[in-house]
Give the backbone structure.
Amino acid sequence: MDTSLNKYISDSGFCSRREADKYIEDCRVTINGKDAHKGNRVMAGDIVEVDGEPLKKNVERVYMMLNKPKGITCTTDRKDKSNIIDYINYKTRIFPIGRLDKLSEGLIFLTNDGDIVNKILRAGNGHEKEYIVTVDKPIHQIFINSMRNGVRILGTTTKKCFVKQEADNRFRIILTQGLNRQIRRMCEVLGFKVTSLKRIRIMNMTITGIAPGKWRFFTAPEMAMINEMLMNSSNTSDGEGMGE
């Protein structure tokens, strides 16, 4: 039985399938000592290496949630001194599901399960992400209505979403898509600058009880609920992710 190379790398717990594609494109992956290419298949007995190191299969799956503080970058690149992996310093290799901007804070998942990453990231699955956002000046009903009905960014119009004013210059927003720096870009188009952005919920999971900078494992009931919600989800990414 064979499997696609990016899925094989992802299943090993090394990184997400999307990141695996980047490793392959950067010529950092070999199969049986020969340079690998996107679209390659891995057969039983093949030896896959990344940067000259054989992949090791992780037996135990890890699922955790972090209340990310400002200043931490959602990258596995250890050259970035503010990378999230060194910040958590977990004993085995893990990677973040989606991203939060370096200046943003709040809930982010980390795991070594590539399949769950792809299912959660797929925007078509409609998984909700909830944020509390503060901007640099008082907001008005025109701003709220515009945010609700869609803003033109990155060559597309954002999907309709829930937006509620919480204070003079603070609002709550629930997204089901994850365009790059989506909330910040939406606000900028409307003449506002984000001064604070905090993700407080992903699907049914909230940061309640997790202090800033701290993390915890998913509970068994949470895992059961996540698996149930993802049961009918495709594990193919469509180009959008769980960004902000």
